[in-house]
């Protein structure tokens, strides 16, 4: 199983980025997919999750209304659209997957992880 995250970069506060997570040897249509992030010196935290059917999603309060998680089953890829970025969004962003219909924001519930992509938001 491989999850390839991409799309990170340097952006000014108020700007936007779209992260992608391309899956191989894993079908996003049968897995709950999530994004987590980890800032320097901080613990990994939940950002957003979408269930295997793509019907249900859930967001951390800190990103609600600014970030949108989505998936393209045909491309076997999950996205995180990030708008109105703030300096406190600076972190390495990781995509993760679990073979389950139900959603959870606990990183310990996800056995599959991508390598991470760095997002830096300047003030």
The major pleated sheet works out as: 7 strands, mixed
Quickly give the structural class. Answer: mainly beta
Helix content estimate: under 10%
Q: Determine the N-to-C terminus distance.
A: 37 Å
Rg from Cα: 13 Å
Which blocks of ≥5 consecutive residues have pLDDT under 50? none
What is this structure, in a nutshell?
Helices cover 0% and strands 50% of the residues.
Description of the molecule:
This protein is an all-beta fold and 123 residues long. Helices cover 0% and strands 50% of the residues. The strands form two sheets. Strands 2, 4, 5, 6, 9, 10 and 11 form a seven-stranded mixed β-sheet that branches. A four-stranded antiparallel β-sheet has the order 1-3-8-7, with no helix packed on it. The protein starts with a strand and ends with a strand. The mean pLDDT is 95.
SSE layout and pairing:
Elements (H helix, E strand, L loop, with lengths): L1 E5 L2 E4 L4 E8 L7 E7 L6 E6 L6 E3 L7 E6 L4 E6 L8 E8 L13 E2 L3 E6 L1
Parallel strand pairs: 2-11
Antiparallel strand pairs: 1-3, 3-8, 4-5, 4-9, 5-6, 7-8, 9-10, 9-11
